[in-house]
Design brief:
By secondary structure, this protein is mostly helical. Helix content is about 50%, strand content about 10%. It has a 3-stranded mixed sheet with strand order 1-3-2.
């Protein structure tokens, strides 16, 4: 289900950030790569924005959203920055919102970690990753449909988390 580029960039960020535990703290990852994350009061239904001002990247997350939604939104907006959606002209036919959401899902709910922990319910994902039910539901569905073996990046993340894949 996940785009390999989105997944790989999320995993590389987890490795670079030295992340070892769930839930993933998105704010420190932003700071680690020079992205400023701030809360804002949305004037419409848009609860997140990513922009570059004078060469400096910013992520803004709606302060009225739930903490679970804020975590996903921050990761999604960070995805736009990491995946270079703001640096280039993207043809309209490319679904950059889907790509940023796939990045966010892998960043805050890494499949390899969920697999290694033998996660089987949405509630487990919600508790471990501090995400909303819809996010956990989609992650569990992707996990259940996964057939490909772990990549070298996923194995590196497992090693960094000190988790071994259980059979």
């Amino acid at each position: 289900m996940f785009d390999h580029r989105s997944r790989d960039m999320a995993l590389k960020l987890l490795l670079y950030g030295g992340v070892r535990t769930l839930p993933i703290a998105v704010g420190p990852l932003c700071r680690k790569i020079g992205v400023t994350a701030k809360l804002f009061t949305p004037e419409d239904e848009n609860d997140g924005i990513s922009i570059i001002v004078d060469g400096e990247p910013f992520v803004f997350v709606g302060e009225t959203s739930s903490p679970e939604r804020q975590r996903f939104t921050a990761a999604h907006e960070l995805g736009h920055i990491v995946l270079d959606h703001l640096q280039q002209r993207i043809p309209r036919e490319l679904n950059i919102e889907r790509e940023a959401s796939e990045f966010a899902a892998e960043l805050i709910m890494p499949e390899c970690i969920l697999m290694a922990l033998n996660v089987t319910t949405t509630q487990q994902i919600m508790d471990l990753c501090r995400v909303s039910y819809p996010a956990a539901f989609l992650a569990l569905k992707a996990l259940q449909n996964r057939t490909d073996p772990l990549t070298h990046l996923e194995r590196a993340v497992l090693h960094q988390f000190h988790v071994e894949k259980r059979e």
